[in-house]
Amino acid sequence: MIPILSVVGRSNAGKTTLIVKMIAELVRRGYRVATIKHNRHGFEIDHEGKDSWRHKQAGARITVIASPHQVAVVEDIEKDYDIAELVNRYIRNVDLVLSEGFKKNPHPKIEVNRSEMKQDLLSTKEDNLLAIASDSPLEAGVPSFDINDTVGLVDLIEGQLLR
Amino acid sequence: MIPILSVVGRSNAGKTTLIVKMIAELVRRGYRVATIKHNRHGFEIDHEGKDSWRHKQAGARITVIASPHQVAVVEDIEKDYDIAELVNRYIRNVDLVLSEGFKKNPHPKIEVNRSEMKQDLLSTKEDNLLAIASDSPLEAGVPSFDINDTVGLVDLIEGQLLR
User: Fold this and answer.
1) Of A43, A44, A69, the CB nearest to B76
2) DSSP states of chain A
3) Does residue A112 belong to any structural domain of this protein?
4) CB distance from B90 to chain A under 8 Å?
């Protein structure tokens, strides 16, 4: 089983920025990382008029675009898969999966919070919360890291999930 | 094994247009279709600045974007996979795969040609050529269909690959 870390937090808390920094730090340390982002309202990918876009528009259920170094796949699915199902279907040969946008999930979590939002945390220790990343220390019975302390957060991830 | 049909032809012969029409006709007949397009020089997908794009830029080897009805995956690969390998890795639950852009391959083929190109066919019967789609009849020891005769071409595909 590939370890999964779920990054949670309210809208505009800075989840993507934190994930991007964590990816860079993990890659610097030699880890292979995958990400899964959930968009409840669907997403746009590909570009209107491109061949692959035309295939999908015409009714193809799966469109694969292949090149020597990268593959892209757009696939229609029958249900809203959870993180573990998506990992099982689409992810291999990585050391860690970072997920964002999945509301309730059982995986270890980091919650991102900023004081200007003046809002409580979404998660508790019982939700498998490993740590908080915030611009001001928060008390929740788990370690609280500065939102910019990518090295500290990745040290924690390494210790808890990658050993 | 999911049947594979390779659509071949020179640049600008009209391969994508034919594929798009065939997809629509196959879907109309109740078949589930996947497509694989090979771009030797790489491809652009996703949109600069989007979260998934930022994940990939930061060094993620695989980025999955999930929604209730569609999933997209962008994955770094180590080698240029052939059609059968791509089908094996990325395609399931379809009745037929249409491929485009793979130069030499052993799969059954339709070659698209237009007379104004004044160029010979790329394939022969020995390359597993099933039929020609052209704006003027061509003699190559296989059936020659009008380039707009999507129904005739799909009848042939149905008879040869989907029974």
Assistant:
1) A69
2) ---EEEEEESTTSSHHHHHHHHHHHHHHTT--EEEEEE-TT----S-TTSHHHHHHHHT-SEEEEE-SSEEEEEEE-SS---HHHHHHHH--S-SEEEEES-SS--S-EEEEE-GGG----S--GGGTEEEEEESS---SSS-EEETT-HHHHHHHHHHHH--
3) yes
4) yes
